[in-house]
Amino acid sequence: MAAPIPGSTHECEGSMASVKAVSSAAPLALRIVAECPVSKARACTLTLPHCAVSTPVFMPVGTQGTLKGITVDQLEDLDCQICLGNTYHLGMRPGPELIEKADGLHGFMKWNRNLLTDSGGFQMVSLVELSEVTEEGVTFHSPYDGKEILLTPEQSIAIQNSLGSDIMMQLDDVVSSTVKGPRVEEAMHRSVRWLDRCIAANKNPDRQNLFAIIQGGLDAKLRKACLDEMTKRDVPGFAIGGLSGGEEKDDFWKMVTLSTEHLPREKPRYLMGVGYALDLVVCVALGCDMFDCVFPTRTARFGSALVPWGSLQLKQKQYAKDFQPIDPDCQCPTCRRHSRAYLHALFKSDTAAMHHITIHNISYQLTLMQSVRQSIIEQRFPEFVKAFMKRMFPSREQYPSWAVEALQSVNICVC
Amino acid sequence: MRLELSRAVQGCRLGLLTGLGNTGQHSLEVPGCLLYTRCATVPHLTQDTLHTLRDLPSVTQVSVDSLAEHHEVLEEFKEGLRKFAGLHDTVLFCSLHDSANSIPAGHVTNKTVSVWGSGGRIELTAARFMAIQAAIQPDFYQSMADGETWQAGTSRKRVRKAVDRTLAHLDECLVLHQKTQELKQSEIFGVVEGGDILEERLRSARETAKRPVGGFVLDGFHSAAMDQDVRVQLIKATSAELPQEKPRLVLGVGRPDEVISCVEAGVDLFESFFPFQVTERGCALSFNYNIDPDPETAVLEFNGEMPAVKKLNSNGDENMTPYEMNLKDKRYHDDFRPLVEGCSCYCCEKHMRAYVHHLLVTNELLGGVLLMLHNMAHYLGFFKALREAITSDRLQDFKNRVLHCREGD
């Protein structure tokens, strides 16, 4: 693999042929390009079957095999190298058999770069009432036809094998982070057993990477136990799970940093369900490489445009006569051509207004990660973080204390 | 603007509308359609997706319906709608109403008409109408008009009033047009009314033709207003009263069969709201307009395998026409072919019926984007083929091809 040119984001020319020379075990190779000497941040190149991905990376979520109104060409033009598809939704409609016939999810939606699919477990627990977890799997009633469905680790992997994603997630026993007590421990141990069943069930270890998901809730002992167990398994990557619910941020960051502390350096770390700009920057500092979240694309459809100093609610009256672009410094197609005032007006007429904001928000997230990566490569990540905080918050008093502490824990002082 | 007619064949006018735009460098082939938009955006499309379409019409259409509520903003912006909307280098035509929406009746008075925005009804006098045009700064626009003659059983008296009011509005608009600095480069089109009454149509046409207008908008002829035969008869008669060298645009007509008969009756320009309506009901235009099919296609057709008529009640919209296919139908669940074989739009080059079907079934926004692209491409292709058929004296073959699918009705 050629060394990445500093500043270059076009790393999608890496081929699998060169990866085999690096690691023959899994269709994934992680090369650490730079590490921050102060914090735990690192910049890497993650080579996957469809192309190489520069990390840290934010992965937009295209739940039902589409990214909410954006074509795959538009997504490619934004330099997106990997995005998510949702096993639960796609497993329901149109179903794995059809997608397999269509050449996998890549062939179905015509996305030529990387895809990551989750296991379906989270949706089942969060979207469906009356779901029940047993050792066998998760039982629930389908919202489409009322039938009882059992999702086992084997079935989740079978669906994901049909989808053909570059990264698949194990089925884990998901418990809300606000739940306390013995259920958390039970779920953690079960997730380890389910990980083993998932590994055994993977029909395509040569072209699909199965990631483990570290559980353990907000209990340091449980998390550590989970880390100890799961890192014994030879999986190509690890996700940090169970942390994007309604928990306190003070507990959240401590579990993140505990997790990265005990995850192998040479494998990617994927923090699931995290997408607010501040959270991304802090968690990069704590050693995470990959992130996903529906927030930027979902909030776009409500007219909320993300900017370095917060967000603009474009449907509000104050923007009716605001003739600037969303962010004068942004280079996305929306900001290069349209004003806040036009978008405000368009929201009253046509769905395209949502698409414009979606494009901007994805661009914002991807550009943020590129800037973070660049600063790590150029050994100025702590300065980047300080400047980021200054831009985002009107004054130091308003810096969220959890973020200040989390950054302090990795030797970045923003106070 | 200038209309250069190259020939008139069996009533069809063929030519080029030139000198369009503020530098006069744009032109539009006739017969042709304008680019339908809502608030200056083609529905569902950003500029990037829009420009995957080739040979877009050089004239973009907007309506006062979607712009009246933004009057104040546009006035403060000062530089016109084109710039406000980020439209570079396009010619702008402004109509009164958006033909994709039906207008509630009963809101026209002697001095006012009403338009409907997102916040409800906005009443306009000629003065306010013209102030809005000054803020939009279109290249050409229709004068304010009373077109409420489409309801069944509209009295002769009412139709006469519509003609009278429309002429009065035109005269008032003309005066204001002359006085308005921002409209110095714009042209105003007169509106011909008259419902389904021949004498009133003729009167309206003759009187409107006396005024210094750049062209003519034929109103009150949309699908619900009258039968095809009556429409054709009236348009032919109206057309004879209008100066040949000025363009004629008909409002509210979009179905392929209606377009063809209006072209034969002397119409030059059409709106393109029809592909949008097809999109909104989850359908894709699929009718064949190619009069030189390859031999293989001809065989398929003979065997009845071409996209022919679908039963209109296969969970289709009641407004569905024989010119389209209903992508929501279960039969497309595992159909891996493009929407229309041989179509070169983004949707057909990249995606398949099964994917579009999935997007529609799951209510995904991309469904609308892809269908809009296909339907617009198909519609533009239809107009291009129509012009070619007229040019090469093969209009009858063209009609046979396009209209044959109605035989299965």
Automatic annotation (TrEMBL), chain A:
<keyword id="KW-0496">Mitochondrion</keyword>
<feature type="active site" description="Nucleophile">
    <location>
        <position position="292"/>
    </location>
</feature>
<keyword id="KW-1000">Mitochondrion outer membrane</keyword>
<keyword id="KW-0819">tRNA processing</keyword>
<keyword id="KW-0472">Membrane</keyword>
<feature type="binding site">
    <location>
        <position position="330"/>
    </location>
    <ligand>
        <name>Zn(2+)</name>
    </ligand>
</feature>
<feature type="binding site">
    <location>
        <position position="332"/>
    </location>
    <ligand>
        <name>Zn(2+)</name>
    </ligand>
</feature>
<feature type="binding site">
    <location>
        <begin position="118"/>
        <end position="122"/>
    </location>
    <ligand>
        <name>substrate</name>
    </ligand>
</feature>
<feature type="binding site">
    <location>
        <position position="215"/>
    </location>
    <ligand>
        <name>substrate</name>
    </ligand>
</feature>
<dbReference type="GO" id="GO:0046872">
    <property type="term" value="F:metal ion binding"/>
</dbReference>
<feature type="binding site">
    <location>
        <position position="335"/>
    </location>
    <ligand>
        <name>Zn(2+)</name>
    </ligand>
</feature>
<dbReference type="Pfam" id="PF01702">
    <property type="entry name" value="TGT"/>
</dbReference>
<feature type="binding site">
    <location>
        <position position="242"/>
    </location>
    <ligand>
        <name>substrate</name>
    </ligand>
</feature>
<keyword id="KW-0328">Glycosyltransferase</keyword>
<keyword id="KW-0479">Metal-binding</keyword>
<comment type="function">
    <text>Catalytic subunit of the queuine tRNA-ribosyltransferase (TGT) that catalyzes the base-exchange of a guanine (G) residue with queuine (Q) at position 34 (anticodon wobble position) in tRNAs with GU(N) anticodons (tRNA-Asp, -Asn, -His and -Tyr), resulting in the hypermodified nucleoside queuosine (7-(((4,5-cis-dihydroxy-2-cyclopenten-1-yl)amino)methyl)-7-deazaguanosine). Catalysis occurs through a double-displacement mechanism. The nucleophile active site attacks the C1' of nucleotide 34 to detach the guanine base from the RNA, forming a covalent enzyme-RNA intermediate.</text>
</comment>
<dbReference type="GO" id="GO:0008479">
    <property type="term" value="F:tRNA-guanosine(34) queuine transglycosylase activity"/>
</dbReference>
<keyword id="KW-0963">Cytoplasm</keyword>
<feature type="domain" description="tRNA-guanine(15) transglycosylase-like">
    <location>
        <begin position="39"/>
        <end position="392"/>
    </location>
</feature>
<protein>
    <recommendedName>
        <fullName>Queuine tRNA-ribosyltransferase catalytic subunit 1</fullName>
        <ecNumber>2.4.2.64</ecNumber>
    </recommendedName>
</protein>
<dbReference type="InterPro" id="IPR036511">
    <property type="entry name" value="TGT-like_sf"/>
</dbReference>
<dbReference type="GO" id="GO:0006400">
    <property type="term" value="P:tRNA modification"/>
</dbReference>
UniProtKB/TrEMBL annotation, chain B:
<dbReference type="InterPro" id="IPR002616">
    <property type="entry name" value="tRNA_ribo_trans-like"/>
</dbReference>
<comment type="function">
    <text>Non-catalytic subunit of the queuine tRNA-ribosyltransferase (TGT) that catalyzes the base-exchange of a guanine (G) residue with queuine (Q) at position 34 (anticodon wobble position) in tRNAs with GU(N) anticodons (tRNA-Asp, -Asn, -His and -Tyr), resulting in the hypermodified nucleoside queuosine (7-(((4,5-cis-dihydroxy-2-cyclopenten-1-yl)amino)methyl)-7-deazaguanosine).</text>
</comment>
<keyword id="KW-1000">Mitochondrion outer membrane</keyword>
<protein>
    <recommendedName>
        <fullName>Queuine tRNA-ribosyltransferase accessory subunit 2</fullName>
    </recommendedName>
</protein>
<feature type="binding site">
    <location>
        <position position="374"/>
    </location>
    <ligand>
        <name>Zn(2+)</name>
    </ligand>
</feature>
<dbReference type="GO" id="GO:0008479">
    <property type="term" value="F:tRNA-guanosine(34) queuine transglycosylase activity"/>
</dbReference>
<dbReference type="Pfam" id="PF01702">
    <property type="entry name" value="TGT"/>
</dbReference>
<keyword id="KW-0963">Cytoplasm</keyword>
<keyword id="KW-0479">Metal-binding</keyword>
<keyword id="KW-0472">Membrane</keyword>
<dbReference type="GO" id="GO:0046872">
    <property type="term" value="F:metal ion binding"/>
</dbReference>
<keyword id="KW-0819">tRNA processing</keyword>
<feature type="domain" description="tRNA-guanine(15) transglycosylase-like">
    <location>
        <begin position="23"/>
        <end position="404"/>
    </location>
</feature>
<dbReference type="InterPro" id="IPR028592">
    <property type="entry name" value="QTRTD1"/>
</dbReference>
<comment type="subunit">
    <text>Heterodimer of a catalytic subunit QTRT1 and an accessory subunit QTRT2.</text>
</comment>
<dbReference type="GO" id="GO:0005741">
    <property type="term" value="C:mitochondrial outer membrane"/>
</dbReference>
<keyword id="KW-0496">Mitochondrion</keyword>
<feature type="binding site">
    <location>
        <position position="348"/>
    </location>
    <ligand>
        <name>Zn(2+)</name>
    </ligand>
</feature>
<feature type="binding site">
    <location>
        <position position="343"/>
    </location>
    <ligand>
        <name>Zn(2+)</name>
    </ligand>
</feature>
<feature type="binding site">
    <location>
        <position position="345"/>
    </location>
    <ligand>
        <name>Zn(2+)</name>
    </ligand>
</feature>
<dbReference type="InterPro" id="IPR050852">
    <property type="entry name" value="Queuine_tRNA-ribosyltrfase"/>
</dbReference>
<keyword id="KW-0862">Zinc</keyword>
